[in-house]
Amino acid sequence: MNTVLEIDSLKKYYGKPGNQTKALNGITLQVMEGEFLGIMGSSGSGKSTLLNCIATVIQPSSGRIVMRGTQIQSLKGKKLAQYRGRAIGYLFQNFELIDNLTGRENIMLPMSLHNVPDKESRDRLTRLASYLEITDVLDKFPSQMSGGQKQRVAAARALIMDPGIILADEPTGALDSKNAKTLMKKLAGLNEEENATILMVTHDSNAASYCKRILFIQDGQIFHELRRDIPDETRPEFYERILKVMSQLGGGSANVL
């Protein structure tokens, strides 16, 4: 199995020496091709900072982020744009759809920006829209969609360029339990059927139970790991193991989806 993403001794400090906040304090991890990896931790643990460093939204203080052999901190100009547009797909908690564009236009925007041929664009859109069950909202504006529809449109936009890795930042955070379950089933299906590589940050034990492996972060460091590799372990059983770890962090969820 190939390594998609490698993070080595990653640190992100805010503030001046003597009065610093250590958002990330030496994170080291690997994400393998076809993996569905969850990053969990309480609010302020550093999990979203980690995702934003990978997405080049913020620059780390030190350490390395290597995507398929390329150290991303060295990327500039067109190569950085290619990385952001093609190597990663970003799924936000609050959808981040453009209000005056239809669902179709929102999804197709990355294809237009990167000059993907029209036929290929249409074929990808048709396949994703069918799988995510959003064909009937493609010509609607975000204001005409439910929260679940918005997030599935946003998921299609994140997937449309067939990125090497999908970065999902609290993707169920703005959804009710029914829509959260639908979205997580779709993401898990993409991982199983399409071998999509997914790195998901979440504080929700329900959502995390769809992952194959979970890293728990506390105070900017990884302190525990769970793998869903026990023979015949069901998702509810994995969920119970997640809850036990989260209880040490003072967090968790009440009901399994």
Characterization of this structure:
With 257 residues, the protein is α/β, with parallel strands linked by helices. The chain has helices at 47-54, 77-87, 103-113, 118-132, 147-159, 177-194, 205-208, 235-249; strands spanning 3-14, 21-32, 36-40, 62-67, 70-71, 88-91, 165-169, 198-202, 213-218, 221-227. 37% of the residues lie in helices and 25% in strands. Strands 6-7-8-3-9-10 form a 6-stranded mixed beta sheet, sandwiched between helices. Helix 4 packs antiparallel against helix 5 (147-159). The chain is globular and about 50 Å long.
Concise description?
The chain is built from 8 helices and 10 strands. Helices cover 37% and strands 25% of the residues.
Label this structure with key terms.
257 residues; alpha/beta; six-stranded mixed β-sheet; 8 helices; 37% helix
Number of helices: 8
Identify the overall geometry: globular
**Residues in helix, %:** 25-40%
Taken in chain order, the helices and strands follow as: EEEHEEHEHHHEHEHEEH
Quote the distance from N terminus to C terminus: 30 Å
Q: What is the structural class? A: alpha/beta
Give me the count of strands.
10
Spatial strand arrangement across the major sheet: 6-7-8-3-9-10
Fraction of residues in β-strands: 15-25%
Estimate the mean pLDDT confidence.
90
What are the low-pLDDT stretches, counting only 5+ consecutive residues below 50?
252-257
Radius of gyration: 18 Å
Largest sheet: 6 strands, mixed
